[in-house]
Design a protein that fits this description.
Strand order of the largest sheet: 1-2
Number of domains: 2
Protein name: TetR/AcrR family transcriptional regulator
Organism: Gemmatimonas aurantiaca
InterPro entries: Homeodomain-like_sf (IPR009057), HTH-type_TetR-like_transc_reg (IPR050109), HTH_TetR (IPR001647)
Keywords: DNA-binding
GO molecular function: DNA-binding transcription factor activity; transcription cis-regulatory region binding
Shape: elongated
Strand content: under 5%
């Protein structure tokens, strides 16, 4: 009986420690995001977590260890959105992926901005943030490889550049839309679809001819001429019209 009671007390203590650890990690992430490493004092973190500083030091040993653990928890907690193993509608699939990734990163935008801002003094924070973004890039890169198995695309270096630009656009949208509005003129609702279409075009994948109710591919452009004054002018106009028709055929492909 005494053994059972001891085991019960031990399990209860472990449960309380686990709960306190989780609360401290969440509190450390919130305080760090708002105040940075210098302002994230152990007293402030403990108050937000609803525990005392003794508990903080007993579990983590130091503030730096707690902040590192909080960053690791954020970096490896919520995983990037996935893309289908078998692409069926790349334009729609990538649109949904972009929207989900922007939303995911935006939920912790203050935290990731702080990590990057302190990369000079705490390089490992920026490295862990880079791990999060590398995971997103790997998902898109693998998806592009699956697209390449269905039809020829641009060269591998060009595809890699396109992946980098897409992930950069998604990250900028999530972390800097409000701070840098000049780079984000597209609305939040419309941007993911535009990212998707621009990306697919850049790797050589065809996109739909209509978008947002307006034709974006195959749009005819008209040029106007003055009436011909002579037979030679008539022939010149005819040649010009033929040239325009050829260009229109190219634009409509």
């Amino acid at each position: 009986m005494a053994s059972l009671a001891a085991n019960s007390d031990s399990s209860r203590a472990a449960g309380l420690t686990g709960e306190a650890r989780t609360r401290l990690l969440e509190a450390a992430a919130r305080v760090f995001a708002r105040h940075g490493a210098a302002g994230a004092t152990t007293k402030r973190i403990a108050e937000v977590a609803g525990v005392n500083e003794v508990t903080l030091f007993r579990i983590f040993g130091s503030k730096d260890a707690l902040l590192d653990a909080a960053l690791q928890a954020c970096a490896h907690g919520e995983q990037p959105a996935r893309l289908p193993n078998t692409p069926i509608d790349p334009e729609q699939e990538l649109t949904e992926w972009c929207a989900q990734e922007v939303a995911r990163l935006a939920r912790s935008s203050d935290f990731w901005r702080q990590c990057m801002a302190e990369s000079g003094s705490r390089r490992h924070h920026a490295d862990d943030a880079g791990t999060v973004l590398s995971a997103s890039a790997s998902i898109v890169r693998a998806y592009v490889d699956r697209l390449a198995s269905q039809m020829p695309l641009v060269s591998v270096p060009e595809r890699e550049a396109a992946v980098s630009m897409l992930v950069a656009a998604v990250v900028s949208d999530a972390l800097a839309r409000d701070e840098l509005p000049v780079f984000h003129s597209l609305s939040r609702d419309r941007a993911p679809a535009c990212y998707s279409r621009a990306f697919l075009r850049s790797i050589g994948w065809p996109v739909s001819s209509t978008f947002d109710g307006a034709t974006t591919v195959g749009r005819m452009r008209w040029e106007w001429f003055s009436p011909p004054e002579s037979e030679s002018d008539t022939k010149a106009v005819g040649d010009d019209i033929d040239a325009i028709a050829e260009r229109a055929a190219v634009w409509s492909e």
